[in-house]
């Protein structure tokens, strides 16, 4: 197996299962759900149980290696390698497809906070609507 990350975090034991989960996240190139990861590890010949995938993801999120993306307050969460460059996503409210956003409108945004000493370390932005495939459904609402 190829080297997964040059910076495996301190305090996280390297195990086959953790490496298998990370390998899926690394090669996915898009946000994936825990069950996607589970079935992909099986395809890779390193099957990891779903409950174990969840436990590993929880740990990796806590360690900052993986970013958890909550989709419109639903139970569905997606996971992605935590890249240095953060990303935002647009979510189709019809088919739940996730589309990456290539820019960040908040990069130049300076929040006016009551606490002037507040140290901002990040932000979260969610865009939603209808994707290309669901476009016609989205327009149905405009009909009388
Ligand atoms: Zn859609
Ligand atoms: Zn941003």
Structural notes for this entry:
By secondary structure, this protein is an alpha+beta fold. It folds into two domains: 11-83, Orthogonal Bundle (Arc Repressor Mutant, subunit A); 85-144, 2-Layer Sandwich (Dna Ligase, domain 1). 29% of the residues lie in helices and 17% in strands. It contains four helices and six strands; from the N terminus they run H-E-H-H-E-E-E-E-E-H. The chain has helices at 16-28, 34-43, 50-62, 135-140, and strands at 32-33, 66-70, 77-81, 88-92, 98-101, 126-129. The strands form two sheets. Strands 1-3-2 form a three-stranded antiparallel beta sheet. Strand 4 and strand 5 (98-101) form a beta hairpin. The radius of gyration is 18 Å and the shape is globular. It starts with 15 loop residues before the first helix and ends with a helix. The relative contact order is 0.12. The mean pLDDT is 82. One zinc ion binds at residues 92, 94-95, 97, 130-131, 133-134.
Question: What are its keywords?
Answer:
globular; Arc Repressor Mutant, subunit A; 2 domains; binds zinc ion; Dna Ligase, domain 1; 4 helices; alpha+beta; 144 residues; 17% strand; three-stranded mixed β-sheet
Number of domains: 2
CATH architecture of the largest domain: Orthogonal Bundle
Please identify which CATH superfamily of the largest domain we are dealing with.
Winged helix-like DNA-binding domain superfamily/Winged helix DNA-binding domain
Report the total helices. 4
Low-pLDDT windows of residues:
none
Q: Could you tell me the number of beta strands?
A: 6
Please give the radius of gyration in angstroms: 18 Å
CATH topology of the largest domain: Arc Repressor Mutant, subunit A
Secondary structure class reads alpha+beta
Strand content: 15-25%
What is the subunit organization of this protein? single chain
Major sheet description: 3 strands, antiparallel
Helix and strand run: HEHHEEEEEH
Global outline: globular
| Adjacency order of strands in the biggest sheet | 1-3-2
Intertermini distance: 58 Å
Mean pLDDT: 82
Bound molecules: zinc ion
